[in-house]
Amino acid sequence: MCISIGVFNMTDFMSRLLRQPHGVVGLILLVVLAIEVILGPALAPYDPETFHYSSRLVGPTPEFLLGTDQFGRDILSRLLWGARTTVLLSLFATLIGAGIGGAIGILSGYLGGRIDEVIMRLVDALMAIPSLLFALLIITVLGPSGTNAVVAIGIAFSPGMARIARSVTLSVRTSDYVAAAVARGESPLWIMSREIAPNMLAPVIIEATIRVAFAIMLLATLSFLGLGSQPPAPEWGLMISEARAFMFRNAWTIVWPGLSIAMVAITFNLLGDALRDALNPKND
Amino acid sequence: MGTQTTLTLKNYGVSYGTDKGPLKVLDAINLHIGKGEVLGLVGESGSGKSTLALAIMRALRGRVAHETGQILLGDVALHSLQGPALNRIRGKRIAMVFQDPGGSLNPTLTLGEHFRQTLARHRQLNPSEIRQETDRLLKMVDLPDTQTMALKYPHEVSGGEKQRAVIALAFACDPELILFDEPTSALDATTAVTILDLFRDLQKRTGVSALFISHDLGVVREIAHRVAVIYAGRIAEVAENRQLFAQPRHPYTRSLLASLPKAATDGEQTPLISIPGSLPDRTVAIPGCNFAERCQFATDPCRRGPIELAQDFGHAVACPYWQTVLYQAIGSDENSQMGVRLEISEPPLLSLNNLSVHISRPDLFARLMGRQPKVIHAVNDVDLDLHGGETLGLVGESGCGKSSLAKALVGLRPFLGHLELDGQPIPSVAQMDSSYRQKVQIIFQNPDLSLNPRQSIGTILSRPLKLYPGQDTGAMDDKINRLLQRVNLPPEFATRYPHELSGGEKQRVAIARALAAKPDLIICDEITSGLDASVQASIVNLLRDVQRATGVAYLFITHDLNLLRHIADRVAVMYLGEIVEIRPAHKIGLPPYQPYTEALLSSAPVLDPGLEPRRIRLQGAPASRLGAAKGCPFESRCPRRIDDICLSERPPRIHFDRGHWIQCHLDQRSLRSVPPIWTATPTSLNND
Amino acid sequence: MSLQYIFKRLLYLIITALVVSALVFGITQILPANAATMLLGEYATADALVALEQKLGLDQPAYVQYWRWISGLLQGDLGTSLRSGLPVADTVFQALGRSLLLAAFALIAVVIIAIPLGVIAAVRRGKAADFGVSMISYIGISLPEFVLATLLLVWLTAPDIALFPASGYVPITENFTKGLWHIALPVITLAIVLTAHVMRMVRSEMADALHADYVLAARLRGLSTTTVLIRHALRNSMLPTITVLALDVGYLIGGIIVVEEIFAFPGIGRLLIVSIQERDLPMIQAGALVMAFTYALSNLLADLAYVYLDRRIQYD
Amino acid sequence: MSQDSKTIDRRSVLGGMATLSVTGLTLPLWAKSSFAASKGGTLRVSVNRAPGRLNPLLQRLNSEYVLGELLYSGLTRLGKGMEVVPDLAESWTSNGDLTEWTFKLRSNAKFHNGNPVTAKDVVVCLTAILDKKTGSPGRRNLGPISGVSAGPGNTVIVKTSTGYGDLPSALAYTTAKIAPAEIVTGDFDRLSREAIGTGPFKLVSYEPDRLIVVEKNPDYFISEYPYLDRIEVMVFPDSSAEMAALVAGEVDLALEIPPADFKRISGASGVTGQRTPSGRFIDVVMANDRKPFNDHRVREALSLTLDRQAMIDFVAEGYGTPGNDSPINSAYRYYADAKQKTPDIKRAKALLAEAGYPNGIDLTMVASVKPGYRQTLAVTIREMAKAAGFNIKVETMAHATYLKQVWKKGDFYVGFYNMQPTEDALFKLLLTSDAAWNETRWNNKEFDGLVNAARTTTDTAKRQQLYGDAQKLMQKELPVLVPVFFDLLSANQNYVENYNLHPRGATFSLEKVSLGVGAPKR
């Protein structure tokens, strides 16, 4: 479980990443996803919200490549538009989690002692609430919306991130370069931000990458439960939730967004695993 | 030594696939091990010695690109064996012992279970026979209480006991050959010698053949009949033990020996020789001698090659010109002037009085329950004076509290007792102001861990310069360049990152960082332990140069007595958190000794031909450090224990001449009456 | 493993429960609408709301309500549901029992399927079998339960296939086969997702274990492949797997919420969702607490199992 | 078929002031073969929300009303054609100005605990419902009652503050159920756990999130009923699971079918779908007293963007009728026919420009997540109104939050209401100045006058006139937009007999249901 604090060098790192089949597949998928996110709206054949009164719930046709939903909206266009929301929201959620958790973890691990003990008990307690449940409770307070779902997931992720950040901090903290910094009288802020934080990046990035996949699914699940993005947003989880009433009339309405979510999750899972392997010196 | 050979390697070579192409790890290896013979294989890290052992076991790790040549066990062609046929031979006809006994035993199985599996597999014994045989084997390696020992899990026994068990396991099926891969490197010196004794003894009794791999020439000298020196995947020299050490022929072997601090060279301070350069790139073909780039005698023909291992009355050497250069001295480019000592200043720079370091783990639960947390007494009541310009060596086995003391001195651990710097009392870590921190610097053992991998060398060096600017004005870049120059590194290193540097270069950066603060004292915590001998030599030479130029004092912590004798003015010996002896460093070989010092000296490997140490062997492992010892810390293992007084009363400090004192219950006379550890006996070589 | 260690962990468990209850209580306090609003629904008038809030004690300061709740809890009284007026404890434990049954079946399925597959993948690393297992696990961990559940529902309960009943719950004590039959789909959904998780874990742990020195040492002693794999590698790789299994209980709880919602399984997850929607405070508190407690307890048990199996670890 | 029967019903129903004495039972026309109905058997009924409240006085969900009706009785009930039929009251009369009503109770009605129903029970229960402390949802739906007292003989006298011709209909309200007086005044909370009613069934078990079982009440006051021995009410929060269970034969009768599934379900083998037009509607609520909706032109512009026919497809999957911006449709007695409104984007744009929004207008429309139609409507309106320059942001929220923060307070949101028994009930609930839920704050004196006048009139033609004017006024003034009425949809196995979908949506009459040939033995 221990993640090394390996050295980080971009070209070397890319070559390590590309040495692994899952890294290659992950990167290819990531590029596809990036295109979808950046160019999706431009590539979409229709406006994602335009109703096509006469073509409701049709299967794939030349006109509507992936078919239409219950309002006659083009599923392909909605997926392409939705990529931006779905992917970016998940990234944000993870970023929030990594940011809050990282800060707490580094502080707790660095300060140590009683403060650490108290923080960690709290974090343990929060971790005892499963992410979905936690997010559910937070959303209940904030009200259902895409942004709130992001915040909720971010908060729900932060205890786990804090744990990882803390354990890395603890191991980095015992390392001699931190000892050297302490011994020469550096300020705690400098030590945390310049000595420890950069060395936490690798494990935190690995964890965050895998968490993105998790965030996508969580976000989609929240939307599915009606607690995430709200109609008419072309968010993928919401699309499934809305389409469920029509799944027997046009199963494509579920299959496409379902596949899309799975694709993104696979991308980040593959990348996370590849990163873990690439940054793991054991595999040299 | 019989004429039959147990193992033969014919022109063996192996390459691993890497991104840059195949890396030739082993090249044209021709070796044999006779029946009942122990072949020592020495080389620095990266020379391919472990790969050789794994190749023999047919368990190469990594991507094998090419494999050539033959490996024969008797007349069995090991190199072509696979699957069940191979499994019938492994463990039965060849066994292997690894460096880390902890790693090679399954943590979830009892020791007995390891034996059971092996015996059931190869010797088809029934359960009661297995029990008997396990018992016999454990007894054979002198393990106590064999019945309960078999029921223990690996973590429940000490490192030495584990290695004994692993050795017993290797002998379990009466193999023809045992491969040892650095079997003592992970152990403390006093434990390591007992393991070596054990193996020597067992080898004699069973007549097993062995390949004994080590980076430590001293260990190989102790144990091997013949010694092969490997450099960058090629055998440089093979000879009878005595021959090799008495008259090494290959320039590499000679340089290697010259880089090692000698045990018995009393008093006089000769510089150590370091080998310039580093291992050659083996992804490209090297037509000539692969040592040529680092060899001070190399000529053009050396680089053109081909170079072959040439036999000459059982002494093979891979240098056609060895005879021409044999009488030319091995030298160093670094013109260290040794022997010039600086004046030791009075009064002391740093003064410790009753200094203790107690480590307790914070435990919320224990506090809630109102219980005292467990406290480890890492350092107990240490008195020590350190003078300006002096090098004080601190020696002791792992876990004796050396590092805790070092950390307390730089404010990384809270301490109890009195600490004075320049007569200024420092009551606690909180009172260590920036002036104290500037004056006392520390260098750690592992430069990989002490240099932040995310910071450039320039950044690393700039920090102390910014924190302690001193009177020195001028551009930061200039200051960094000067520092790099000071430690013999080129200025362009400022923009590099630690991982781009070699181990020795990294340690130089760490030294430069310490120097940046212009300290009065540098604490060197095992700073050469992770380095190869030749690199260690260059670091030690650098430290001496620096001391001469700046008058800085060193607290030099190490477990290597030979090194201390070379570098230190005074030596403090530490055992279980207490300093048991302080003595001047020259004359270290002469009595009186504190009994622990004596055992430590006896365990140090000896390279000098014709020098035989007196054997003193310690039993058991150091006692627990929970709570302060009432009596002598060494009481439980002391071969010269008097009686219960050692357990119950703190031993007195007995003063001898010139700042030499010993903490022991023995009286002065009996302490003085011990013979010296080393006696020159030309016939003492163990192989006959 | 000392008794003291167990006590300590139990104490932490209680701390966890307290923090969770305070947190959940805090959340329910700042909810934009309370149970009275929901109870009265579109029939709420200001005076009716006040009256009902008084009756339910919702007008009291938060700490009073919390203290009342905690002291009730200590006496084993979880209060009454604001929605149905039924005792919370009965409802919650009944629902929990059903969910645990679901979880237990899913875990059993996972252990039976995932461990052998993970081992095969690790041993045949880089081969077709590994590729297959990896593919399955990537898909499994990347497909949200609600998609999987919905697709299973569309395919397996369609009239012409009708492999399984779509939903409903028959107590297993009432009719064993029928109970199993009804629980099958939710169990399959949970098991597929979890299997992927555990399989991945076993594979990577096993691969690590196969690289360990003691496995090399065992191989070099010429032990048979089965002995090396099972006695040496698997045994050690099971330790982290146990931890992962315990962590997956958390995942399982999340999954259970979704799966129960879709398959109309009257477990704790659905109870919680309904309670959140209805602002049924005592029910939310009890439900969340029970879930968190279950999770924390399973982690504790995993740690104890770990200590029991791996003698190296000595907690004090 | 239902269209025909409705016309007949509407005519056959008496206004209310005259004594309606239906002592026996009028066999409904649609009852295929009630004489041949076989007795016994267990019926599995599915509902799509958990009936969380057992207490009949506190119920407010259709799934709860099912239980209320199975286990309890009121004074009156609604017949198939929305006419008032006797329940515990066997007959009723009123004084001339419709301010005092006398209800005569049945003599053979007994509670499940064996006690006979007395006037005291009725007085206590009605008083409790009217007491705001009880928190009964029906408090404002029973009409302007000023007093309830026991009369001579087994009678109950209800006085109203103004003349109120619809009182018998109002007392058919779903929560106006009668429970034993001593429990209501004593241990009221007991009704959350137990059911002591007079209904055709008795409670066996109650697990609100899963299964509620009731069994035949042998002492039911109409001896012919119930036919069934046992009813199991199964709870499915997820409609796809519910539909699958129906198709698989696990469920005999699904009380509500999502429009999207109706075609598939009613086409499934062995399953029959039922559909009835209803007054259940979805509306767009606008704050008539605040900008921008205080400007009639804005409301009209929005109304003109709506393609109501298309909306039926989107919101109700075609199972509905177009709305004409009045909550009264042909399912009500006094419906006034009017020309169907059609979209006119050009005119809408012009109106919006006139109102001061030549460049369009930004609005936020709130839709609660329950039921899903609200969001669908919001999304549809957003899309349709775009063309005329309305830029509508849809904001959805949890139902609880919606109730607390938006309902009756917000400026612009989606409402959703069941059909009410009478026009009066609906207007007085939503639209008059003194309406219980005056969410539009339209406060139109003329409209109030029309509704109040109709209350105290017994002349059917005059009432038709008054209510017709009121509807016209709404269609002109547009206090709310009513784009769609829903048909009610249900489905049952072919062997389920005599279940008939009631347009009110809250009345089920399961005591009349029986199981025919092919019913599984359970």
List the helices and strands and how they pair.
The complex is a heterotetramer of chains A (284), B (688), C (316) and D (522).
Chain B: E1 5-18, E2 21-34, E3 38-42, H1 49-56, E4 64-73, E5 76-77, H2 83-89, E6 94-97, H3 101-104, H4 111-123, H5 127-140, H6 146-151, H7 159-171, E7 177-181, H8 189-206, E8 209-214, H9 217-223, E9 226-231, E10 234-240, H10 241-246, H11 251-258, H12 300-304, E11 316-317, H13 322-325, E12 350-360, H14 364-368, E13 375-386, E14 391-395, H15 402-409, E15 416-421, E16 424-425, H16 434-439, E17 440-443, H17 447-450, H18 457-467, H19 476-486, H20 503-516, E18 521-525, H21 533-550, E19 553-558, H22 561-567, E20 570-575, E21 578-584, H23 595-603, E22 611-613, H24 645-648, E23 653-655, E24 661-663, H25 668-672, E25 678-680
Parallel strand pairs in B: 3-8, 3-9, 6-7, 7-8, 14-19, 14-20, 17-18, 18-19
Antiparallel strand pairs in B: 1-2, 1-4, 4-5, 9-10, 10-11, 12-13, 12-15, 15-16, 20-21, 21-24, 22-25, 23-24
Helix pairs in contact in B: 4-5, 7-8, 8-23, 18-19, 18-20, 19-20, 20-21
Chain C: H1 3-29, H2 35-40, H3 46-56, H4 62-74, H5 88-123, H6 128-142, H7 145-156, H8 176-211, H9 213-220, H10 225-262, H11 268-278, H12 281-309
Helix pairs in contact in C: 1-12, 5-6, 5-8, 5-10, 5-12, 6-8, 7-8, 7-10, 8-10, 9-10, 10-11, 10-12, 11-12
Chain D: H1 2-12, E1 20-21, E2 42-47, H2 62-71, E3 76-78, E4 84-86, E5 89-94, E6 100-105, H3 119-130, E7 145-151, E8 155-160, H4 167-170, H5 181-185, E9 201-207, E10 211-216, E11 230-235, H6 239-247, E12 253-254, H7 259-267, E13 271-286, H8 296-305, H9 308-316, E14 320-322, H10 345-354, E15 361-368, H11 373-386, E16 390-397, H12 399-405, E17 412-417, H13 423-430, H14 445-455, H15 460-477, E18 480-493, E19 496-497, E20 514-515
Parallel strand pairs in D: 2-11, 2-12, 15-16
Antiparallel strand pairs in D: 1-5, 3-4, 5-6, 6-8, 7-8, 9-10, 10-11, 12-18, 13-17, 13-18, 14-18, 19-20
